[in-house]
Amino acid sequence: MEPTLTIAGSDSSGGAGIQADLKTFSAIGTYGMSVITAVTAQNTQGVFLVEELSSEIVKKQIEVIFNDIPPKAIKIGMVSSSQIIKEIVNTLKKYDYKYLVLDPVMISKSGYHLLQPEAKMNLIKYLIPMAYIVTPNTLEAEEITKVSIKNIEDMKIAGEKILSIGPKYVLMKGGHLEGDAVDVLIGRDIFKIYKERRLIKKNTHGTGCTLSSAITAYLALGYDIERAVELGKIYITQAIKNSFDIGNGVGPVNHFWNIDYEKVK
Ligand SMILES: Nc1ncnc2c1ncn2[C@@H]1O[C@H](COP(=O)(O)OP(=O)(O)O)[C@@H](O)[C@H]1O
Ligand SMILES: Cc1ncc(COP(=O)(O)OP(=O)(O)O)c(N)n1
Protein backbone atom coordinates (compact mmCIF):
# COMPACT_ATOMS: atom_id res chain seq x y z
CA MET A 1 0.00 0.00 0.00
CA GLU A 2 1.44 3.39 -1.01
CA PRO A 3 2.05 5.77 1.94
CA THR A 4 0.67 9.31 1.67
CA LEU A 5 1.27 12.20 4.06
CA THR A 6 -0.74 15.28 4.93
CA ILE A 7 0.81 18.25 6.72
CA ALA A 8 -2.19 20.31 7.82
CA GLY A 9 -4.50 21.47 10.61
CA SER A 10 -7.01 19.38 12.54
CA ASP A 11 -10.73 20.07 12.00
CA SER A 12 -12.59 18.79 15.06
CA SER A 13 -15.79 18.34 13.00
CA GLY A 14 -14.03 15.93 10.65
CA GLY A 15 -15.06 17.53 7.35
CA ALA A 16 -11.90 19.43 6.37
CA GLY A 17 -8.20 19.53 7.32
CA ILE A 18 -6.31 16.44 8.46
CA GLN A 19 -9.49 14.44 8.98
CA ALA A 20 -10.74 15.01 5.42
CA ASP A 21 -7.29 14.21 4.05
CA LEU A 22 -6.95 10.91 5.93
CA LYS A 23 -10.47 9.83 4.95
CA THR A 24 -9.73 10.64 1.32
CA PHE A 25 -6.35 8.89 1.35
CA SER A 26 -8.03 5.77 2.78
CA ALA A 27 -11.05 5.86 0.46
CA ILE A 28 -8.72 5.93 -2.55
CA GLY A 29 -6.67 3.03 -1.20
CA THR A 30 -3.46 4.62 0.10
CA TYR A 31 -1.94 4.49 3.61
CA GLY A 32 -2.56 7.91 5.17
CA MET A 33 -0.21 9.60 7.68
CA SER A 34 -0.39 13.05 9.24
CA VAL A 35 1.72 15.89 10.57
CA ILE A 36 -0.53 18.26 12.53
CA THR A 37 0.37 21.96 12.39
CA ALA A 38 -2.55 23.42 14.38
CA VAL A 39 -5.73 22.34 16.12
CA THR A 40 -8.94 24.12 15.23
CA ALA A 41 -12.09 24.05 17.33
CA GLN A 42 -14.45 23.89 14.38
CA ASN A 43 -17.87 22.57 13.50
CA THR A 44 -20.27 22.88 10.56
CA GLN A 45 -21.09 26.43 11.70
CA GLY A 46 -17.61 27.89 11.82
CA VAL A 47 -14.13 27.99 13.31
CA PHE A 48 -14.14 29.12 16.96
CA LEU A 49 -10.55 28.86 18.14
CA VAL A 50 -7.18 27.86 16.73
CA GLU A 51 -4.10 26.72 18.62
CA GLU A 52 -0.92 26.27 16.70
CA LEU A 53 1.52 23.50 17.61
CA SER A 54 5.18 24.33 18.29
CA SER A 55 7.53 24.25 15.32
CA GLU A 56 9.56 21.68 17.24
CA ILE A 57 6.76 19.09 17.25
CA VAL A 58 5.96 19.85 13.59
CA LYS A 59 9.61 19.20 12.71
CA LYS A 60 9.77 15.99 14.78
CA GLN A 61 6.59 14.58 13.24
CA ILE A 62 8.04 15.07 9.74
CA GLU A 63 11.42 13.60 10.69
CA VAL A 64 10.11 10.44 12.31
CA ILE A 65 7.78 9.74 9.41
CA PHE A 66 10.44 10.24 6.75
CA ASN A 67 12.98 8.17 8.71
CA ASP A 68 10.57 5.23 8.87
CA ILE A 69 7.85 5.42 6.19
CA PRO A 70 8.90 7.79 3.38
CA PRO A 71 5.67 8.97 1.74
CA LYS A 72 5.07 8.48 -1.98
CA ALA A 73 3.25 11.82 -2.13
CA ILE A 74 2.75 14.71 0.31
CA LYS A 75 -0.05 17.21 0.67
CA ILE A 76 0.31 20.50 2.55
CA GLY A 77 -2.83 22.31 3.75
CA MET A 78 -3.22 24.74 6.66
CA VAL A 79 0.23 25.94 7.73
CA SER A 80 -0.95 28.68 10.06
CA SER A 81 2.14 30.89 10.50
CA SER A 82 5.53 31.95 9.13
CA GLN A 83 7.31 30.02 11.85
CA ILE A 84 5.63 26.75 10.87
CA ILE A 85 6.18 27.42 7.16
CA LYS A 86 9.91 27.89 7.73
CA GLU A 87 10.12 24.71 9.84
CA ILE A 88 8.32 22.65 7.17
CA VAL A 89 10.55 24.05 4.41
CA ASN A 90 13.79 23.44 6.33
CA THR A 91 12.80 19.95 7.43
CA LEU A 92 11.52 18.76 4.03
CA LYS A 93 14.80 19.99 2.45
CA LYS A 94 16.58 17.09 4.17
CA TYR A 95 14.51 14.43 2.37
CA ASP A 96 13.82 13.17 -1.14
CA TYR A 97 10.27 13.30 -2.42
CA LYS A 98 8.68 13.74 -5.82
CA TYR A 99 5.11 14.85 -5.36
CA LEU A 100 4.24 17.79 -3.11
CA VAL A 101 0.65 19.01 -3.50
CA LEU A 102 0.19 22.46 -1.95
CA ASP A 103 -3.33 23.61 -1.09
CA PRO A 104 -2.60 27.23 -0.09
CA VAL A 105 -5.29 27.36 2.60
CA MET A 106 -5.92 30.95 3.76
CA ILE A 107 -9.51 31.53 4.89
CA SER A 108 -12.24 28.98 5.75
CA LYS A 109 -15.64 29.20 4.02
CA SER A 110 -16.96 30.62 7.28
CA GLY A 111 -14.44 33.50 7.04
CA TYR A 112 -11.81 32.54 9.64
CA HIS A 113 -8.14 33.27 8.88
CA LEU A 114 -6.41 29.87 8.93
CA LEU A 115 -3.17 31.47 7.71
CA GLN A 116 -1.95 34.52 9.60
CA PRO A 117 -2.09 37.38 7.07
CA GLU A 118 1.61 38.23 7.54
CA ALA A 119 2.55 34.62 6.65
CA LYS A 120 1.13 34.94 3.12
CA MET A 121 4.41 36.27 1.72
CA ASN A 122 6.34 33.34 3.14
CA LEU A 123 3.89 30.84 1.71
CA ILE A 124 4.39 32.46 -1.71
CA LYS A 125 8.17 32.79 -1.38
CA TYR A 126 9.06 29.43 0.17
CA LEU A 127 6.27 26.88 -0.24
CA ILE A 128 4.90 27.58 -3.74
CA PRO A 129 8.28 27.07 -5.49
CA MET A 130 8.69 23.65 -3.79
CA ALA A 131 5.34 22.32 -4.99
CA TYR A 132 4.70 19.84 -7.76
CA ILE A 133 1.19 21.27 -7.99
CA VAL A 134 -0.53 24.20 -6.23
CA THR A 135 -4.33 24.13 -5.94
CA PRO A 136 -5.67 27.62 -5.09
CA ASN A 137 -9.34 28.54 -5.07
CA THR A 138 -10.17 31.87 -6.73
CA LEU A 139 -9.84 33.88 -3.50
CA GLU A 140 -6.42 32.39 -2.74
CA ALA A 141 -5.26 32.89 -6.35
CA GLU A 142 -6.38 36.55 -6.15
CA GLU A 143 -4.42 36.99 -2.92
CA ILE A 144 -1.30 35.44 -4.46
CA THR A 145 -1.41 37.25 -7.81
CA LYS A 146 -3.56 40.37 -7.24
CA VAL A 147 -5.41 39.42 -10.45
CA SER A 148 -9.19 39.70 -10.16
CA ILE A 149 -10.75 36.38 -11.25
CA LYS A 150 -14.20 36.26 -12.84
CA ASN A 151 -13.84 33.73 -15.68
CA ILE A 152 -11.57 31.13 -17.32
CA GLU A 153 -9.45 33.78 -19.07
CA ASP A 154 -8.70 35.39 -15.67
CA MET A 155 -7.94 31.91 -14.24
CA LYS A 156 -5.39 31.43 -17.03
CA ILE A 157 -3.72 34.80 -16.38
CA ALA A 158 -3.53 34.23 -12.61
CA GLY A 159 -2.50 30.57 -13.03
CA GLU A 160 0.39 31.51 -15.29
CA LYS A 161 1.53 34.10 -12.75
CA ILE A 162 1.55 31.40 -10.03
CA LEU A 163 3.38 29.03 -12.38
CA SER A 164 6.11 31.63 -12.81
CA ILE A 165 6.83 31.42 -9.05
CA GLY A 166 8.17 27.91 -9.60
CA PRO A 167 5.74 24.98 -9.13
CA LYS A 168 5.44 22.46 -11.96
CA TYR A 169 1.65 22.73 -12.23
CA VAL A 170 -1.19 24.92 -10.97
CA LEU A 171 -4.78 23.76 -10.62
CA MET A 172 -7.02 26.81 -10.52
CA LYS A 173 -10.24 25.75 -8.74
CA GLY A 174 -13.39 27.47 -9.90
CA GLY A 175 -15.81 26.35 -7.19
CA HIS A 176 -16.46 29.95 -6.11
CA LEU A 177 -17.32 31.24 -9.60
CA GLU A 178 -20.82 31.23 -11.06
CA GLY A 179 -22.01 28.57 -13.49
CA ASP A 180 -20.41 25.18 -14.03
CA ALA A 181 -17.73 23.93 -11.60
CA VAL A 182 -14.71 24.52 -13.82
CA ASP A 183 -11.11 23.90 -12.76
CA VAL A 184 -8.11 24.64 -14.95
CA LEU A 185 -4.79 22.75 -14.93
CA ILE A 186 -1.88 24.85 -16.11
CA GLY A 187 1.68 23.72 -16.74
CA ARG A 188 4.44 24.80 -19.10
CA ASP A 189 3.05 22.42 -21.73
CA ILE A 190 -0.51 21.87 -20.44
CA PHE A 191 -3.71 23.88 -20.39
CA LYS A 192 -6.60 21.60 -19.55
CA ILE A 193 -10.14 22.35 -18.43
CA TYR A 194 -12.04 20.04 -16.10
CA LYS A 195 -15.73 20.83 -16.12
CA GLU A 196 -18.62 19.39 -14.12
CA ARG A 197 -22.15 20.65 -13.72
CA ARG A 198 -22.54 22.79 -10.57
CA LEU A 199 -24.33 20.75 -7.92
CA ILE A 200 -26.91 22.62 -5.89
CA LYS A 201 -25.85 21.31 -2.50
CA LYS A 202 -25.60 22.95 0.92
CA ASN A 203 -23.00 20.58 2.37
CA THR A 204 -19.68 21.54 0.80
CA HIS A 205 -17.45 21.85 3.88
CA GLY A 206 -13.96 20.59 3.02
CA THR A 207 -14.22 20.50 -0.79
CA GLY A 208 -10.77 22.02 -1.34
CA CYS A 209 -9.01 19.79 1.20
CA THR A 210 -10.71 16.74 -0.25
CA LEU A 211 -9.80 17.51 -3.87
CA SER A 212 -6.13 18.20 -3.07
CA SER A 213 -5.76 15.04 -0.99
CA ALA A 214 -7.47 12.97 -3.72
CA ILE A 215 -4.94 14.30 -6.25
CA THR A 216 -2.14 13.43 -3.77
CA ALA A 217 -3.43 9.87 -3.42
CA TYR A 218 -3.75 9.36 -7.18
CA LEU A 219 -0.21 10.68 -7.74
CA ALA A 220 1.03 8.23 -5.08
CA LEU A 221 -0.73 5.43 -6.96
CA GLY A 222 1.28 6.28 -10.06
CA TYR A 223 -1.15 8.27 -12.23
CA ASP A 224 0.27 11.17 -14.24
CA ILE A 225 -0.83 14.69 -13.35
CA GLU A 226 -3.62 15.01 -15.96
CA ARG A 227 -5.19 11.70 -14.95
CA ALA A 228 -4.65 12.34 -11.20
CA VAL A 229 -6.58 15.63 -11.53
CA GLU A 230 -9.26 13.97 -13.67
CA LEU A 231 -9.75 11.21 -11.08
CA GLY A 232 -9.61 13.76 -8.25
CA LYS A 233 -12.33 15.80 -9.93
CA ILE A 234 -14.53 12.71 -10.27
CA TYR A 235 -13.89 11.88 -6.61
CA ILE A 236 -14.82 15.36 -5.30
CA THR A 237 -17.85 15.64 -7.57
CA GLN A 238 -19.23 12.35 -6.29
CA ALA A 239 -18.35 13.32 -2.69
CA ILE A 240 -20.38 16.55 -3.09
CA LYS A 241 -23.23 14.71 -4.84
CA ASN A 242 -23.43 12.23 -1.94
CA SER A 243 -22.87 14.79 0.84
CA PHE A 244 -25.13 14.59 3.86
CA ASP A 245 -26.78 16.68 6.57
CA ILE A 246 -24.90 16.48 9.83
CA GLY A 247 -24.69 19.36 12.29
CA ASN A 248 -26.58 22.62 11.93
CA GLY A 249 -24.49 24.42 9.35
CA VAL A 250 -22.58 23.55 6.19
CA GLY A 251 -22.10 19.80 6.45
CA PRO A 252 -19.25 17.71 5.03
CA VAL A 253 -18.90 16.00 1.70
CA ASN A 254 -19.13 12.22 1.70
CA HIS A 255 -15.55 10.93 1.58
CA PHE A 256 -16.69 7.31 1.44
CA TRP A 257 -19.19 7.58 -1.41
CA ASN A 258 -17.23 4.80 -3.15
CA ILE A 259 -17.47 2.25 -0.31
CA ASP A 260 -20.03 -0.53 -0.52
CA TYR A 261 -21.06 -0.84 3.14
CA GLU A 262 -22.91 -4.09 2.49
CA LYS A 263 -19.51 -5.68 1.73
CA VAL A 264 -17.91 -4.61 5.02
CA LYS A 265 -20.78 -5.59 7.31
N1 LIG B 1 -21.41 23.19 -6.00
C1 LIG B 1 -20.43 22.51 -6.61
N2 LIG B 1 -20.73 21.60 -7.55
C2 LIG B 1 -19.75 20.88 -8.16
N3 LIG B 1 -18.44 21.03 -7.88
C3 LIG B 1 -18.08 21.95 -6.96
C4 LIG B 1 -19.05 22.73 -6.27
N4 LIG B 1 -18.40 23.55 -5.38
C5 LIG B 1 -17.09 23.27 -5.52
N5 LIG B 1 -16.89 22.33 -6.48
C6 LIG B 1 -15.62 21.75 -6.88
O1 LIG B 1 -14.95 21.36 -5.68
C7 LIG B 1 -13.55 21.54 -5.80
C8 LIG B 1 -13.06 22.48 -4.70
O2 LIG B 1 -13.27 23.79 -5.15
P1 LIG B 1 -13.44 25.10 -4.31
O3 LIG B 1 -14.75 25.08 -3.62
O4 LIG B 1 -13.20 26.21 -5.27
O5 LIG B 1 -12.27 24.98 -3.26
P2 LIG B 1 -12.12 25.46 -1.74
O6 LIG B 1 -12.89 24.50 -0.89
O7 LIG B 1 -10.65 25.41 -1.53
O8 LIG B 1 -12.67 26.85 -1.65
C9 LIG B 1 -13.34 22.04 -7.24
O9 LIG B 1 -13.15 20.94 -8.10
C10 LIG B 1 -14.66 22.73 -7.56
O10 LIG B 1 -14.88 22.87 -8.94
C1 LIG C 1 -8.12 22.65 9.61
C2 LIG C 1 -8.71 23.18 8.36
N1 LIG C 1 -7.99 23.19 7.24
C3 LIG C 1 -8.50 23.68 6.08
C4 LIG C 1 -9.80 24.18 6.06
C5 LIG C 1 -10.36 24.75 4.81
O1 LIG C 1 -10.94 23.73 4.13
P1 LIG C 1 -11.64 23.82 2.70
O2 LIG C 1 -11.49 22.50 2.05
O3 LIG C 1 -11.17 25.01 1.97
O4 LIG C 1 -13.14 23.93 3.12
P2 LIG C 1 -13.96 25.02 3.88
O5 LIG C 1 -13.63 25.05 5.32
O6 LIG C 1 -13.60 26.29 3.19
O7 LIG C 1 -15.31 24.53 3.66
C6 LIG C 1 -10.54 24.13 7.24
N2 LIG C 1 -11.79 24.59 7.28
N3 LIG C 1 -9.97 23.65 8.39
Layout of strands and helices, then pairs:
Elements: E1 3-11, H1 17-27, E2 31-43, E3 46-52, H2 55-68, E4 73-76, H3 82-92, E5 99-102, H4 120-127, E6 133-134, H5 138-145, H6 152-163, E7 169-172, E8 181-187, E9 190-196, H7 207-220, H8 225-241, H9 261-264
Parallel strand pairs: 1-2, 1-4, 4-5, 5-6, 6-7
Antiparallel strand pairs: 2-3, 7-8, 8-9
Bound molecules: adenosine-5'-diphosphate and the ligand Cc1ncc(COP(=O)(O)OP(=O)(O)O)c(N)n1.
The site of ligand LCLJCK34 has 19 residues, from strand 1, strand 2 and helix 7.
Enzyme class: transferase
Domain Pyridoxamine kinase/Phosphomethylpyrimidine kinase: 11-254
Keywords: ATP-binding, Kinase, Nucleotide-binding, Thiamine biosynthesis, Transferase
Notable traits:
nine-stranded mixed β-sheet, binds adenosine-5'-diphosphate, 265 residues, 9 strands, alpha/beta, binds the ligand Cc1ncc(COP(=O)(O)OP(=O)(O)O)c(N)n1
Description:
It is built from nine helices and nine strands. By secondary structure, it is of the alpha/beta class. It has one domain (2-263): UDP-N-acetylmuramoyl-L-alanine:D-glutamate ligase. It has a nine-stranded mixed beta sheet, with helices on both faces. Strand 4, helix 3 and strand 5 form a beta-alpha-beta unit. Helix 2 packs parallel to helix 3 and helix 7 crosses helix 8. The radius of gyration is 17 Å and the shape is globular. The two termini are 23 Å apart. Bound molecules: adenosine-5'-diphosphate (ADP) and the ligand Cc1ncc(COP(=O)(O)OP(=O)(O)O)c(N)n1. Residues 137, 173-176, 181, 183, 196, 198-199, 201, 204, 207-208, 211, 233, 236-237, 240 line the site of adenosine-5'-diphosphate (ADP). Its EC number is 2.7.1.49, 2.7.4.7. Pfam families: Phos_pyr_kin.
